[in-house]
């Protein structure tokens, strides 16, 4: 493929991304399609074989949450590590203890917050906007990946988003946005129970827990951080159910 053809393809893709920023038609589906979407989200998050793969995306969103929180407080993001065992790490540079606490908090709750926003976007005509924004964010995040496993995970996530922008119809984009939103909410709940298990049954792994790390940095007990995670996740789920009402009404 010559340079001109590649440039044309890239230009066409960015044109599709730009088109996605316009508001589209809100998602309206019957019960059959709605049940299929919810079932698809369950398939991604409940069975262990599929969670093994979708959970990598949830971890990526988790680490991006830390990265955005760091940038919000003026810190410099040094890099993101992702691993196939669903662990990850975001490294930033800053001196403020409050900024470090803010950055450390926005990991586990972020998949739930993003999931709720995707549910809202699907039912309000902004699914294309969500997909275009997500594709650009995932592509930009490649610049911050600092390990080989992370590069494979990030490229896979970015590649899927690129293909959806190129090939998915507006209706398909809305359905996928809703399904991924529900799956991210379910994934956030699953990850919260996993970190709770670290504190109650697998204490040898405490160093991997954001709640324990926040306790070390702030002196605030880990149980309060776990509770705060749960509050944000529960509030996100409640908001998603509220935005879901028109579909089930």
Could you walk me through the main structural features you see in this protein, from its secondary elements to its overall organization?
- Pfam families: Peptidase_M50B (PF13398).
- It is a single chain.
- The protein has ten helices and two strands; from the N terminus they run αααββααααααα.
- The protein has 249 residues and is mostly helical.
- It has a two-stranded antiparallel sheet with strand order 1-2.
- The longest helix has 31 residues, at 170-200.
- It starts with a helix and ends with a helix.
- The mean pLDDT is 93.
Q: Given the helix and strand composition, which structural class is it?
A: mainly alpha
Radius of gyration: 19 Å
Low-confidence stretches: none
Assembly state of the chains shown: single chain
| Largest β sheet strand count, sense and barrel closure | 2 strands, antiparallel
Rounded to the nearest angstrom, the distance between the terminal CA atoms is 51 Å
Count of helical stretches: 10
Strand and helix order: HHHEEHHHHHHH
Tell me the β content: 5-15%
Strands side by side in the biggest sheet: 1-2
The number of E-state strands comes to 2
The percent range for helix content is over 70%
- Shape estimate: globular
Keywords:
mainly alpha, 2 strands, 73% helix, globular
Short synopsis of the structure:
The chain is mainly alpha-helical and 249 residues long.
Layout: helices, strands, pairs:
Layout: H1 3-20, H2 31-45, H3 48-72, E1 76-82, E2 88-93, H4 97-105, H5 110-123, H6 127-141, H7 148-167, H8 170-200, H9 210-218, H10 222-248
Antiparallel strand pairs: 1-2
């Amino acid at each position: 493929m010559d340079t001109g053809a590649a440039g044309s393809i890239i230009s066409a893709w960015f044109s599709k991304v730009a088109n996605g920023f316009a508001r589209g038609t809100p998602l309206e589906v019957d019960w059959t399609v709605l049940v299929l979407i919810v079932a698809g989200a369950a398939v991604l998050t409940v069975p262990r074989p599929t969670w093994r793969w979708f959970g990598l995306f949830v971890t990526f969103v988790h680490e991006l949450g830390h990265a955005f929180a760091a940038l919000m407080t003026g810190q410099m993001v040094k890099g993101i590590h992702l691993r196939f065992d669903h662990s990850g790490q975001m490294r930033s540079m800053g001196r403020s203890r409050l900024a470090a606490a803010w950055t450390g908090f926005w990991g586990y709750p972020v998949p739930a917050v993003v999931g709720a926003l995707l549910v809202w976007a699907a039912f309000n005509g902004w699914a294309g906007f969500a997909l275009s924004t997500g594709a650009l964010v995932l592509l930009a995040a490649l610049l911050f990946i600092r390990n080989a496993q992370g590069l494979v995970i990030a490229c896979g996530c970015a590649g899927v988003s690129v293909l959806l922008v190129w090939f998915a119809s507006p209706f398909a984009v809305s359905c996928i946005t809703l399904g991924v939103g529900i799956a991210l909410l379910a994934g956030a709940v699953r990850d919260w129970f996993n970190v709770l298990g670290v504190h109650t049954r697998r204490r040898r792994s405490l160093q991997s827990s954001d709640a324990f790390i926040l306790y070390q940095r702030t002196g605030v007990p880990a149980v309060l951080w776990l509770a705060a995670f749960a509050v944000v996740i529960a509030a996100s789920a409640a908001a998603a159910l509220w935005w879901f009402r028109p579909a089930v009404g």
